[in-house]
Amino acid sequence: MNEPRGGGRAQAGAEPANPVAAVRAVLPSLTPAAQAIARIVLDDPGLVVRSTITEFSAVSGTSEATIVRTARALGFAGYSQMRFALAAAVAKEPERLVPGDIGPDDPLTDVIAKVARGESEALADTAAQLDPDRLDAVVAAIARARRVDVYGVAASGLVATDMSQKLLRIGLSSHPFSDAHLALTSAALLCDQDVVVAISCTGETPDVLVPARTAKDAGAMLVAITNNPRSSLADLADHTLVSAGRETAFRPGALASRISQLLIVDCIFVGLAQRTYESANAAIRATREATDRYRGR
Question: Pairing state of beta strands 195-199 and 148-151?
Fold first, then answer.
């Protein structure tokens, strides 16, 4: 792995392809004043589309200068560009203006519809902002790695386990870690032939961030899967793959992002299976035969 590294953060100044998902992703990294404006954008993007900056200033109770600064922090050139981007998004998917939060008294028929819609939107948002070139670089790095460690805790820990199992299935050496001490022990022994995939919704989880930094210091290539492209983890990573998931009262951030994290993992897995087709196919066949024998088939 001697090629130059880089690409942890999203490029500055590039207008987001999916404005609502982009705003949601960077929300935790904003100042309190900017967060208040961003939450209005998320709760009612149609309001922004309909309002001049003066009208939006009155509604939000913030100054026009603060609104412009917030629009720029969200990746737009200014308020007008943010309005145009949201208008295009609303025109493409008008149903996104319909409130989708689950209420405590919602019947289960509504719960099913809202959960399904939320997960469908998370998958669509993740696919829209997943950079094929960066994904290809991640696949290439994992394909030639000596070993792959995957870090994640709680819901992200489930995704980490899923990824390691998939890599093992096609004959790649991979180990999942949800315990920070074990992750640190492994990270300290890595080298520049290894890859670490660190999974964290916020990108600020200490049990993921600290081992990831240790692995990076040891020379390993670091891949981040996170909702927040401006997080500490994204800043540290050689490559960042951004997931998307909307937090609600009954679906906290880590749970909402799990489905989109799994999409990224599946894309990596399929890309690896394509790149290493002969060996991957042989490994899948061998592991299937082993499990079939165990089940007596």
Answer: parallel
Helix (H), strand (E) counts: the chain: 14, 5
Neighbours of 144 (CB within 10 A): 11
| Cβ within 8 Å of residue 11, ≥6 positions away | none
Q: Do 99 and 236 meet the contact criterion of CB atoms below 8 Å apart?
A: no
- 202 vs 229: CA distance, rounded Å: 9
| Measured CA distances, 180 to 191, 210, 211, 213, 240 (Å) | 19, 8, 7, 12, 21
Q: How far lies 214's CA from each of 8, 78, 230, 237, 288, in Å?
A: 16, 39, 20, 12, 36
Contact 99, 40 (CB under 8 A): no
pLDDT digits (tens, 9 = 90+) for 170-218: 999 999 999 999 999 999 999 999 999 999 988 999 999 999 999 999 9
